[in-house]
Amino acid sequence: MRNEKVTHTPKGLTDILWEECELKYQIESAARGVFAAHGYKMVQPPTFEYYDVYHAATPNKAESMFKFFDVDGRMLALRPDFTTSIARLAATKSVGQQLPLRLCYAGSAFQNDEAFSQARQREFSQVGIELIGENSAEADAEVIGIAIETLQKVGMRRFQIDIGQVAYFMGLAEQAALSPEQTDCLRERINDKDFVAIEQLLDTLDMPNTLRQAFLKMPTRFGSLSVADEALAQESLNEKSKLALENLKQIYHILQGRGLEEYISVDLGMVPHLDYYTGMIFKGFTYGIGFPICSGGRYDTLMGKFGRNLPATGAALGVERLMAALHDDKAAETAEKASDEYITVALAKGRLAELSIEIFERLGFDVAEMKTKTRKLIFTDEKRKFKFILVKASDVPTYVEYGAADIGVVGKDTLLESGKDLYEVLDLGFGFCKMAVAGPAQMRGRLEGRNIMRVASKYPRIARDYFHGIKGQTVDIIKLNGSVELGPLVGLSEVIVDIVESGKTLKENGLEVLEEICPLSARLVVNRVSMKLHRETVVDLIGKIKGELK
Ligand SMILES: Nc1ncnc2c1ncn2[C@@H]1O[C@H](COP(=O)(O)OP(=O)(O)OP(=O)(O)O)[C@@H](O)[C@H]1O
Ligand SMILES: O=P(O)(O)OC[C@H]1O[C@H](OP(=O)(O)OP(=O)(O)O)[C@H](O)[C@@H]1O
């Protein structure tokens, strides 16, 4: 029998062979050529360092770092990215060198996540640049410009760079006197364009209405530069937010002056982790890859952690993601053509199907055939250039994440369970129900603090987040695929985590709601790239659906 531990690579790690390896080196060498032409000097930090180095810079990556100990018992970690190591080496090794420093790198970074896809791997290659010692819009525009030039040089044809400014959000958070926890929670919800959750959180916070409106509008403020002007027009912005928006405008104008405007879009709602970003941030997107192909931003306080306070900005490109985007150029071309012509909407089969179809029907789409008892899976409205696909509810987030569908209609339960990286743009106001812990009446009052308990659920991720994450109870989670109510009845589990709508299923099986986890309803979700590349159509559709909901 074959020993897979000997013949296979661990999950998320892969051999790169033949043409793929060729392509990888071509990309790296093209990138290095561009960097060198702009005066960037190659540096190579070690593959692993003291864990404290990375932890000081990126606490949010702490959990996903590969950690181990040296013979002296000191904790080490494989680098989760290059920026931290380069900041450390520049802070400690560059004294006496003329500023600004222009440094570049190529190599592997590591992430200990459950990663299987080409887009999210445990070992992945990055090429990138860091421009250290200059705080100016010119410097930020330089790194974005070089990222664009690199993408062009490796052969990318259609891509978009979104630029944002985290200091705008931080200025608002300071004005609202939010605690670090509240700031991070709000930041995450804005970054996910999760309008419903933003509103829910703002309802619990006490702040002037102008600030509330500014936060609420953040996720809608993307597109042309006019969104920065709109944000600037808002009354009583503090100096930090104002300067941030002015800085974003300056960067945009510099890039415009270099003829790069066609690639640039502004997104004020883009506020990824604030571990070290202090100003401009950017992410690059293309068709067929549901994740950014490059990203970067300004980090003016990171170097200070290593003993030398210098402003800095940088950009990193994900080589595997570029390979995936370039790999099958023909397929990409076909996909581009198809997505140029049609917007694809994935609707969930089952309980949400009828109401989802109805919304599009009310908006005048030709969806009559979907209501018939057909076995067809794709329905086309030729006039409006929309395609509708009917898929299993739990697959909707996958279709949308990968860009096989631009838009999806799906329950919040499925979204939470999928953990996918999508824009959640609208609560559709139907499919109301709740996620709850349920069980026999005798379990009431007996859940608190218990660790020896079995929880059956079709939603193991939600159950785990609730029990392990929120309540700190390390209960056993048992995954079932349906008829979950049977669990406590046949002794498989003490309780269940499941959807409760009318409560009829629970009642008929002698069970009751013990704890409510969260309210649920149908949501409209949008692929991150479609939101950028088909902005007008998508925004127009969102507006029309909103109109229908009123
Ligand atoms: N796990 C991964 N697998 C493959 N490529 C990755 C991975 N993580 C990051 N990259 C690539 O490296 C680039 C820079 O990574 P970095 O960690 O600096 O940015 P990030 O925006 O935090 O990444 P992500 O959005 O993937 O979490 C990303 O834009 C992406 O292209
Ligand atoms: O409160 P109620 O109105 O009774 O609805 C709740 C039931 O509906 C869902 O099951 P679904 O019909 O999706 O089938 P499943 O049991 O196979 O998951 C859910 O898992 C509950 O069993």
From TrEMBL:
InterPro entries: aa-tRNA-synth_II, aa-tRNA-synth_II/BPL/LPL, ATP_PRibTrfase_cat, ATP_PRibTrfase_CS, ATP_PRibTrfase_HisG_short, HisRS-like_core, HisRS/HisZ, HisZ. Catalyzes the condensation of ATP and 5-phosphoribose 1-diphosphate to form N'-(5'-phosphoribosyl)-ATP (PR-ATP). Has a crucial role in the pathway because the rate of histidine biosynthesis seems to be controlled primarily by regulation of HisG enzymatic activity. Required for the first step of histidine biosynthesis. May allow the feedback regulation of ATP phosphoribosyltransferase activity by histidine. CDD domains: HisRS-like_core (cd00773), PBP2_HisGs (cd13595). It catalyses: 1-(5-phospho-beta-D-ribosyl)-ATP + diphosphate = 5-phospho-alpha-D-ribose 1-diphosphate + ATP. Its main location: cytoplasm. GO terms for molecular function: ATP binding; ATP phosphoribosyltransferase activity; catalytic activity, acting on a protein; histidine-tRNA ligase activity. The keyword Amino-acid biosynthesis applies. This is Multifunctional fusion protein. It is an enzyme of class 2 (transferase). GO terms for cellular component: cytoplasm. HAMAP family: HisG_Short, HisZ. It comes from the Bacteria. Heteromultimer composed of HisG and HisZ subunits. Lacks the C-terminal regulatory region which is replaced by HisZ. The keyword Aminoacyl-tRNA synthetase does not apply. Pathway: Amino-acid biosynthesis; L-histidine biosynthesis; L-histidine from 5-phospho-alpha-D-ribose 1-diphosphate: step 1/9. It is found in: Cytoplasm. Its EC number is 2.4.2.17. Residues 27-326 form the Aminoacyl-transfer RNA synthetases class-II family profile domain. Pfam families: HisG, tRNA-synt_His. GO terms for biological process: histidyl-tRNA aminoacylation; L-histidine biosynthetic process.
